[in-house]
Design brief:
alpha/beta; Rossmann fold; 21% strand; binds S-adenosylmethionine; methyltransferase
């Protein structure tokens, strides 16, 4: 077909594909917390960006049958709740440096009756991670502003061999020590997509 004809019909073909494409609709049990987080951020212009889809970390903790989960970046507790819900036997320890977010997250966690499953640990990741027990977590989820080399090394220490790191917000420009750590094939089996990397601890 001549290229002029191809170019003429391309927009029609793209529109037809878009019309029949049906993204999966996955019910979100914590859509109310995600919405509350958006409202809070709009009102306060803070860094409480709810993760796009809690179903991603939720599916991963369910797939690995996680018992212990550590998260950096609680905001109002959206992904902590999603992970606790998806892995019914698990405890979630979630770290948050903003005292206002700590208070609001505890309120949300209480309202969803998950107080006995989720601990909100106040403070920075840099200060809190080093107090946690090494080799004892099945999943670590980084959803702070952008990971530093120090934080990634601590998350590696905390995971058991075979444990999974979900490293979000890589789009914000992590330094070289982060990208070289996560890309080190002697330490991790890594797959990256969009702004997230999935890294399974090998050693
Ligand atoms: C992207 S939001 C987290 C969103 C949350 N996981 C959710 O899905 O609703 C980032 C949060 O991490 C906190 N934060 C950012 N860097 C941090 C750090 N180094 N240590 C502890 N908390 C941090 C911010 O205060 C903010 O509340």
């Amino acid at each position: 077909m001549p290229s002029t004809l191809v170019n003429r019909f391309r927009p029609v073909a793209v529109a037809a594909i878009a019309a029949v494409r049906r993204p999966l609709e996955v019910a979100d049990p914590f859509a109310d917390v995600q919405a509350a987080t958006r409202r809070h951020r709009r009102a306060h212009h803070c860094g409480a960006f709810a993760y796009g889809e809690g179903s991603l970390p939720a599916a991963i903790v369910a797939a690995v049958g996680a018992r212990r989960i550590v998260e950096v970046g609680t905001a109002l507790g959206y992904t902590a709740l999603a992970m606790a819900h998806a892995a019914p036997g698990a405890r979630v320890e979630t770290i948050e440096m903003d005292p206002g977010h700590v208070r609001l997250a505890r309120e949300q966690i209480s309202a969803h009756r998950m107080d006995d499953r989720i601990d909100v640990l106040p403070g920075t990741a840099e200060a809190v991670l080093k107090t946690l027990e090494g080799g004892s977590y099945d999943v670590a989820f980084f959803d702070g502003f952008t990971p530093t080399g120090e934080v990634v090394r601590e998350l590696h220490r905390l995971l058991r061999i075979g444990g999974t790191l979900i490293a979000g917000n890589l789009i914000l420009g992590p330094d070289r020590s982060v990208t070289s750590h996560l890309g080190d094939t002697s330490r991790w089996r890594t797959h990256s997509f969009g702004e997230t990397a999935l890294c399974v601890r090998l050693a």
